[in-house]
Structures are given as C-alpha cells and as structure tokens.
Write a structure and sequence with these properties.
heterodimer, A: alpha/beta, six-stranded mixed sheet, four-stranded antiparallel sheet, about 40% helix, about 25% strand, globular, B: mainly alpha, 9 helices
C-alpha cells in the first residue's frame, strides 16, 4: 500500500482486559505537520502514542511509517529509532547526566563514536537551551529542564516524527511555558509532531490540526480555528468551551 | 578487702588477661595470618563470583522466559531453604560418590558461591524492581532492545542500590566461612582450633580469633561505606 503520508493509522483497536480503549482510530500525519490530540482523560490518547511506538501492541488495525507497516514489523527496535518519544514523567535515565542521556542512544543504539555523539548531544542541548546543564544529573534539574533534556534526547536520534505524551502535565505553568516554547520552535523548524496535550492555548496556536477524541473514538478533527469556533459536534464544543472558560477566567 | 582493692584486683586480672591474649597472638600469628588469608580468599572470591552468579539468577528470574524463570525461582528457593552447612556437606562429602573429589577449600568456595549467589539474586531482584518501569520503556523508546535497556539503563541503577545489601552479604560471608573448618578447610577458625588444641587455652585463643574477625569486619564495612558514597548518583545521595 502506498500513500504520501508520513504516518498513516488505520482502524486501530485496543482493549485492556474488558476495557475497550481504542475503538477504530484512523488518521494520518504528513511531513512537517503538527497535530494535537485532545480529549477527556482515559479516552485512549496515550494508548495511540504507545501503539505508534509499539510500546503497546494494538489488537487490530495497521500503522504505516513512510509506507512501511510497522504493526507487523519484525525489526521494531529500528523503527523506534525513527520515532522520538517524550514522556509525561520525562523518563530520563537517572544515572546519567543530561549529556549522557542524550548520548546513550547514539553510542549504544547507533553505535556512534563517543566524540561524535558528544558533539551531537551538545548541539541538541544547545537547541533546547540547556548546554550549561550538560553535566547535571536529572535529580539536579527542574521539571522543565528535565523535559527539555527529554526532547533533546529524542531529537538527537534524528527521528522522522516525535510523539509527545502530555509533556507538560507534570509541570507548573511557569515551567510549562519553557517546554512549550521549545516545542513551538521545533514546529516552526518543520519537525513532524504528534502531541497529546491539555494545553489548549498552545494547541490553538501551534497545531495544524486538532484531533478531538472521546471513549476510544475520534469525534472530530480539523484546523484549530474551526474546532474552537465552529465545531461540527456539540460534544467538541462542550469540551473545548470548558477549557476556554478556564483559560479566560478572571481576565 | 575494701572496694578499691576489689577493683584493683579486677583490673589486674583484666590486664593479665589482655597480656595473655597478646602472648597467644604473638606465639601463633603466622598460623593465624595464614588462616586469615584463606578466610579472605574464600570471602572475596565467593562474594565476587556469587555476585556474578546472582546477577544471572535475578535476570533469569525477572526477565527470562517462563522456563528460565521457573528454574531460577526453584533453584533460589532450594538454596535459601536449606542450611549452608548441609550444602557444604553435599558438595564435600556427597559429590565424591559421583567421582567428583574436591579439596576442602574448593568445596567450600563452590558452596559459598552457590549459596551467596542465591541470596544476592534476591537482593538484586528487589533493587531491579525498585527502578521504575518507565526507565525500561524510555530505553525501548530510543531504539534499544530489551536486553540493551536492562544492561545499560536498569542494571547500572539497580547495582548502585544493592550496595548496602551487598555490604551485609559480604560481612555474613566473612563470618560464614568459619563453617568451612568443619570440612577441614584451613581457614582462620580451623587454624584457631588447631592452635587451641595444642596450647589448651581454648577461651583465650578463640577470643583472639573473635577480635581478628571483628577488626576485619570493621575494615570492610568502612570500605563498602566509601564505595556506596563514591557510586551514589548525584541528587540521590542519602541525607544524613
């Protein structure tokens, strides 16, 4: 099967025991696009990201990365190198410095020479504004700094796309800003990103498209302006309005 | 005799007793030293190889397939469920039945490695499971295989956390090696028994030996405390 999409997801289903988490999810992502998945908690947003990286095996459905079906791929480690993943709880390796965290994938997975890996690591840390903190261990960094190291680690592998799983939901508003700024910069640079987030303001300004899902299904997807101002579904309006209320409350 | 006199008498007895201990030590230190070397050899070798064995056992138990996991679980339960002395006897007196004749020191070494390996496997298992599962997931997410993630991400953290438990294990081993005298391995306790049976000073000779064990234990505890601090991950130090 051939398509022009960087990522194509077809009819994804997943249950955990009796709990149906994904119920026929289909969408696609083109090169350079940023899409943000929004929706109430427990609707399977993170499961989609985990499925794309094969950290969770879908029960049914297909996922293609550049026309290669990854759902049936034997070489999943190779495919994971091409898909960056940024975790809600950062997932930094606690025993390594910021630089070590960014380098380890290059030296151990890509078998790069240490010096070369170090140069790339410093470049990526500079890109997220943390070159001064290269020798700090995760426990010595703030939440926002940790997440930026997480982003640098994903970037260093030169992935075709990066998945962000609620990257700022463990951060206070101030720290959230510094992480979102890095992500905005990446979007502007043309990085392909799929983001699960509750940051509606960010979604509205950065996303090319917003995917609203609930109960394992996509209710509606489209450009942010349309979803925020004139959605097709009542439920979309209801959900997004709550956030807008929150956002402008007291202003 | 007044109170002062009693105390003076007691002090005299103690000083004389101490003098006797020193005399016994001076008369037999070459033999005691030889015994101590065997004790240290048994302790250090069996803790090093026991550690390696323990790493394999715990990885097999946690990450191995069903069969490997069952076998390692059963093996650990078997070793932990039987006395060390019985294990020593099985290796030293039991194996010759099948044509395997081991010297006392080798028999002791093998028993201690197997025994310590089983205990260390369980210490390490606890420590591996205390490293969050998110770390494994993060390793996989950058393209590492499961075993790469285990070796480069999980183990380096788990091994640091297990150092305090290993300190205990080392100290236990150091003292358990004294059991090897029963199968005639010439370690510190075995040599002490020979010295005591010659000079008939059982109480004082064993007291000298007890002091030697105590001093060695104190020295090694200090070494391990130093290692624990040296390998601590910045930001994860234990607050004192």
């Amino acid at each position: 099967m051939t398509t022009n999409h960087l990522l194509l997801i077809e009819n994804l289903h997943k249950s955990f025991d009796d709990n149906k988490v994904l119920n026929g999810i289909s969408f696609h992502l083109d090169k350079g696009e940023t899409k943000v998945i929004v929706g109430p908690s427990g609707t399977g947003k993170s499961t989609i990201l985990n499925s794309i990286n094969m950290l969770v095996r879908p029960d049914e459905g297909k996922i293609y990365l550049e026309n290669i079906e990854i759902t049936s791929s034997k070489n999943i480690h190779k495919i994971r190198q091409e898909i960056g993943f940024v975790f809600q709880d950062f997932g930094l390796f606690n025993h390594l410095t910021a630089k070590g965290n960014v380098m380890i994938g290059l030296t151990r997975v890509k078998k790069m020479k240490k010096k070369e890996a170090e140069e790339i690591a410093m470049f990526e840390l500079e890109r997220v504004g943390l070159s001064k903190f290269a020798d700090h261990y995760p426990a010595q960094l703030s939440g926002g700094q940790k997440q930026r190291v997480g982003i640098a680690r994903a970037l260093a592998m030169q992935p075709k796309l990066i998945l962000f799983d609620e990257p700022t939901s463990a951060l206070d508003p101030e720290l959230t800003g510094e992480v979102l700024n890095v992500m905005k910069k990446l979007a502007a640079e043309g990085m392909t990103m799929l983001i699960v987030s509750h940051e509606m303001g960010f979604a509205r300004t950065v996303a090319d498209e917003i995917i609203f899902m609930e109960n394992g299904e996509i209710i509606e997807q489209g450009p942010p302006e349309k979803l925020f101002t004139n959605p097709d579904h009542e439920r979309t309006k209801e959900f997004l309005l709550k956030f807008i209320d929150l956002y402008y409350e007291g202003v | 005799m007044n109170l002062l006199g009693i105390i003076a008498k007691d002090i005299e007895v103690i000083v004389k007793g101490m003098g006797d201990l020193v005399t016994i030590f001076l008369n037999s230190y070459p033999i005691l030293f030889r015994g101590l070397m065997v004790t240290l050899l048994l302790t250090i070798a069996s803790s090093i190889f026991g550690t390696i064995f323990g790493i394999f056992l715990s990885l097999g138990k946690i990450y191995g397939n069903k069969l490997v996991s069952r076998i390692t679980t059963l093996f650990i339960a078997l070793i932990q469920g039987t006395p060390l002395l019985v294990q020593l006897f099985v290796v030293y007196y039991g194996l010759p039945v099948y044509g395997i004749n081991l010297s006392p020191v080798w028999a002791a070494l093998i028993s201690f490695i197997i025994n310590s390996g089983a205990y260390q496997a369980e210490y390490l298992r606890g420590s591996i499971q205390s490293v969050s599962s998110g770390q494994l997931k993060a390793g996989l997410s950058i393209g590492m295989s499961k075993w790469q993630s285990i070796f480069f991400i999980i183990l380096p953290q788990a091994l640091r956390r297990v150092i305090p438990a290993w300190t205990n294990e080392f100290i236990y081993l150091l003292k358990y090696t004294s059991l090897a005298y029963i199968i005639t391995a010439p370690e510190l306790m075995g040599e002490a028994k020979i010295i005591a049976s010659r000079n008939y000073e059982f109480f004082k000779t064993y007291l000298v030996v007890a002091f030697i064990y105590l001093i060695v234990v104190i020295i090694f505890t200090q070494i391990f405390n130093y290692l624990e601090k040296k390998f601590a991950i910045p930001g994860f130090e234990f607050e004192r």
